[in-house]
Design goal:
This protein is α/β, with parallel strands linked by helices. It contains 15 helices and 15 strands. The protein has one domain: Alpha-Beta Barrel (TIM Barrel), CATH 3.20.20. The strands form four sheets. The chain has an eight-stranded parallel beta barrel, surrounded by six helices. GO terms for molecular function: beta-galactosidase activity.
């Protein structure tokens, strides 16, 4: 398998997120992740993103690394509280950082893909305006999106509204593992709805401001399979698939939530104004697919959604996620047939037991992981899937949310004590692949 096996215009890249790499907290207002990570017991070892990879001060070095590897594109997110003080008032210093970042990428022939929201909601909007639980959040988000389209839309033509709204809603408001750490089942559905409304409002602004660009949304896409052939397990798995995948894609394409999932939530009052779906279902240009693994599901009477996770038998990454490249192929084909939109793999990668030895990191397991997922990607393209690009998660090791700095996903190893970067064997393999060697 070589790069030339893929379509000529296919973009190979890598991806990051603002709070996970930037640091530079002195030049922005706080986000919900600042408060959450500084709350004892919320993250492993009490880790936080105050410094992270210090990308805010080292972005030029990081772009040089990307240039050396040879990527076509770079997906990164903008920190809302960096470009707008408290999420409301424009902060020119923060805006200038992203202006310089974009210009430097373009100088090096790297196409920028911008994600507007990768979980770092301005703390002020959470504390004073009730955050994602407030329907007005969609207007605040639209104002923020409009500002960025106006500042960068002349040079950046690929935009993503939200990263993994399922995680923001479910992990942030029901499970409580992510900021802001709520544990309220009903809240999570209100949040999901307001996230999708915010997405729609951003798309409306985009069409008005950036006439020659493309905009989409990225969600975590998971292959869901039932533990057994028992009818209850099969139905539980079908509903989980709708809660994770359908709930965040169907309303955008079809203007409604998945019917079976809605019927299963009889005890939840959603109270959705009908015209909300007119906002949510604005025409988009692509779906971003963040794929990592599958979920094996069985029925559980005691869970609010009537399911539980079962342990799968396949080899696992350091995150405990099964390595299942076939699931990527399956979801790409399914999405291609169901939604009939171009697709990008906006994240795919693995956390591994990386060790720095003699300034080298031998991560054959990551190389094999990437090769196997590249093969699934190529198979999907050969079978007619309109797939436009692939972004490996991540460019470099970073703050892995509740796991702190204990999990390493990067192609580049970061020594957090010195901030020195080291290309792992996987980065060198990727470089050779991109050179068609």
């Amino acid at each position: 398998m070589k790069r030339t096996d893929f379509p000529k215009e296919f973009k190979f890249g890598t991806a990051t997120a603002s709070y996970q790499i930037e640091g530079g907290i002195e030049d922005r207002s706080p986000s919900i992740w600042d408060e959450f990570s500084h709350t004892p017991g919320k993250t492993k070892n009490g880790d936080n993103g105050d410094v992270a990879c210090d990308h805010y001060h080292r972005y030029e070095e990081d772009i040089e690394i990307m240039k050396d590897i040879g990527v076509d594109a770079y997906r990164f997110s903008i920190s809302w509280p960096r470009v707008m003080t408290d999420g409301i008032k424009p902060n020119e210093k923060g805006i200038d950082f992203y202006q310089k970042l974009v210009d430097k990428l373009l100088e090096n022939n790297i196409t920028p893909f911008i994600t507007l929201y990768h979980w770092d909601l301005p703390l002020y909007l959470y504390k004073e305006k009730n955050g994602w639980l407030n329907p007005d959040i969609a207007n605040y988000f639209q104002d923020y999106a409009s500002l960025m389209f106006n500042k960068l839309g002349d040079r950046v033509k690929h935009w993503i509204t939200l990263n993994e709204p399922w995680c923001s809603a479910f992990l942030g408001y029901f499970v409580g593992e992510h900021a802001p750490g709520h544990k309220d089942f009903q809240e999570s559905f209100y949040v999901a709805h307001n996230l999708l409304r915010s997405h729609g409002k951003a798309v409306i602004a985009f069409r008005d401001i950036v006439k020659d660009g493309k905009i989409g949304i990225t969600n975590v896409v998971t292959k869901v399979e039932s533990l057994s052939n028992d009818e209850k397990d099969i139905q539980a798995a079908k509903l989980v698939d709708q809660y994770i995948n359908g709930w965040y894609h169907d309303p955008i394409v079809y203007g409604k939530y998945p019917e079976e999932a809605v019927n299963s939530l009889k005890n939840i009052k959603l109270d959705i104004p009908e015209n909300d779906f007119d906002i949510i279902s604005q025409t988009i240009d692509f779906f971003g697919v963040n794929y990592y693994s599958r979920q094996v599901i069985s029925y559980d009477e005691n869970h609010p959604l009537k399911f539980k996770h079962a342990e799968g038998p396949l080899p696992k990454t350091e995150m405990g996620w099964e390595i299942y490249p076939k699931g990527l192929y399956d979801k790409l084909v399914e999405f291609n047939n169901k939604y009939k939109l171009p697709l990008y793999i906006t994240e795919n990668g693995m956390a591994g037991p990386d060790k720095l030895e003699n300034e080298q990191i031998h991560d054959d397991y990551r190389i094999n992981y990437i090769k196997d997922h590249f093969k699934s990607t190529l198979d999907a393209i050969k079978d007619g899937v309109d797939l436009r690009g692939y972004f490996i998660w991540s460019l470099m090791d970073n703050f892995e949310w509740a796991h702190g700095y204990s999990k390493r996903f990067g192609l580049v190893y970061v020594d957090y004590n010195t901030q020195k970067r080291y290309l792992k064997d996987s980065a060198l393999w990727y470089k050779n692949f991109l050179l068609n060697k």
